[in-house]
Write a structure and sequence with these properties.
Length: 122
């Protein structure tokens, strides 16, 4: 199994766990916001992680991809906030907090899977 697949499965497990813990504390609109945040955050994180993994051997490209991934996350958070405010979406606060939290939590597990796949066989 590749590092991207393992990262995606670990991320899915983590996001699912957080959702199960928070589910009973939220009203239906907050739950909807939590689910939307999860559906946005996980694919963005996997995409950014796979790009970083691809360029990990070239330091300059890696830094450029890392910066691009950071800007992508911030842009997505800003865009989601803009659209949610403009459309007067219900569950706005839980959605934005969950999106930022998912991005942060998934970012914390990246170093575990960023190492070389060749190093795992040694």
């Amino acid at each position: 199994m590749s590092n991207v697949s393992r990262y995606a499965l670990t991320g899915l497990g983590g996001v699912t766990f957080v959702m199960l813990v928070l589910w009973s504390f939220l009203d239906p609109l907050g739950r909807r916001g939590l689910l939307i945040a999860a559906l946005i955050a996980l694919p963005i994180q996997v995409l950014a992680f796979s790009a970083m993994l691809r360029f990990r051997t070239n330091w300059n490209h890696f830094l450029a991809v890392w910066l691009g991934g950071t800007l992508l996350r911030m842009g997505v958070l800003g865009l989601v906030a803009f659209v949610a405010v403009r459309t007067n979406s219900e569950g706005l606060v839980p959605m934005l907090l969950a999106l930022a939290g998912f991005f942060f939590g998934l970012l914390l597990i990246e170093p575990i899977y960023l190492r070389s796949e060749h190093a795992e066989t040694l």
